[in-house]
Specification:
Length: 127
């Protein structure tokens, strides 16, 4: 790309779109705490981990939006997304679970691209 400003603008929009699912997901887990704990337990994941999940999603998502420690956060959210896919979306007998698994793989790919490319000029990191 010969236009660095356009590339940096695309990175900003891409960061916002990647992070939106995590910020909104973390917030909804706060509002639906008991239900989320029950869902986690049904998948064999201890509900005691829910505060950590909320922190990763909410704080990690906001860090991606503002572009702070972007490469490290993108790598962490890549690992988190892969783990969530394996823990919660492996029932491929249900087409929706297969679709959610594939969607999460695409999101994980986006985080790998962000890890490789950096946040861009419109970020705290400015890389």
């Amino acid at each position: 790309m010969n236009n660095p400003a356009l590339g940096d603008a695309a990175k900003l929009v891409g960061r916002i779109l990647l992070a939106l699912m995590f910020v909104l997901g973390g917030w909804s887990k706060i509002n639906g705490y008991a239900g989320t704990q029950a869902y986690m337990a049904s998948a064999g994941v201890p509900g005691i981990l829910l505060p950590l999940v909320i922190i990763v999603e909410l704080i990690g998502g906001l860090m991606i939006v503002v572009g702070y420690k972007t490469r490290l956060t993108a790598l962490a959210l890549f690992a988190f997304t892969i783990a969530a896919s394996v823990l919660f979306h492996m029932n491929w007998a249900q087409p929706m679970q297969q679709l959610l698994f594939m969607k999460n793989l695409a999101v994980a790919g986006g985080f790998l691209m962000l890890f490789a490319a950096g946040a861009g000029a419109y970020s705290v990191d400015k890389d």
